[in-house]
Design a protein that fits this description.
186 residues, alpha+beta, 2 domains, 4-stranded antiparallel beta sheet, 6 helices, 7 strands
């Protein structure tokens, strides 16, 4: 994608989001909302930051999510972030608690957004009777040193898979060995 194409996509994304925001039935002062596009985010479709000093909410929307979702799904992300902006403006804080859930449900906004990218790692339980797994986009501690952690469901050992290569490991040295073996493919 050229820089010019990226600007066009970002401009379209922001224009559609702002137009949609005006039609959402929520008491948000849109004059105190700034909008940005993230080109780096891989897991979250949006975020809302609060600048307490300026009393401004910044809604950050992810270009990859915009390109991956259909408009209805992405509009739901905008509504989700508007609920955060509303909480910040009304209460000075925001989360995904009861107040958020109630307001989000009224606006048909999801509590959490669907993933729009493939995980870089998959953590899987080794117990035959357990099908627990977790997806990771970054090399977190459980990815780097799986021997120090247990399955989230049954407590058994697990392995980690590097999804692009299919290589797996069950300990820190396995992580290091896989990373070294893959070199540039890592």
């Amino acid at each position: 994608m050229t820089d010019e194409e990226a600007l066009t996509v970002d401009d379209e994304l922001l224009a559609r989001a702002r137009i949609h925001a005006r039609d959402v039935d929520i008491d948000v002062d849109l004059e105190a909302v700034e909008w940005e596009v993230s080109t780096r985010a891989r897991r979250r479709a949006g975020a809302c930051r609060w600048d307490r000093r300026r009393e401004v909410a910044t809604i950050v929307l992810t270009r990859r999510a915009y390109e991956s979702y259909d408009w209805e799904s992405f509009a739901a992300v905008v509504r989700h972030e508007l609920v955060h902006a509303w909480e910040f403006q009304q209460f000075g804080e925001s989360g995904h608690g009861q107040r958020f859930r109630k307001r989000a449900a009224e606006l048909d906004a999801p509590r959490h957004c669907e993933t729009f990218s493939e995980p870089r790692y998959v953590i899987r339980c080794l117990a035959e009777s357990c099908d627990w797994q977790a997806h990771r986009h970054r090399a977190s501690r459980p990815v780097k040193a799986p021997e120090s952690y247990r399955c989230g469901e049954c407590g058994s050992d697990y392995e980690v898979e590097h999804t692009e290569s299919g290589r797996t490991w069950q300990c820190a040295s396995g992580y290091g060995g896989t990373k070294a073996a893959l070199e540039e493919e890592w």
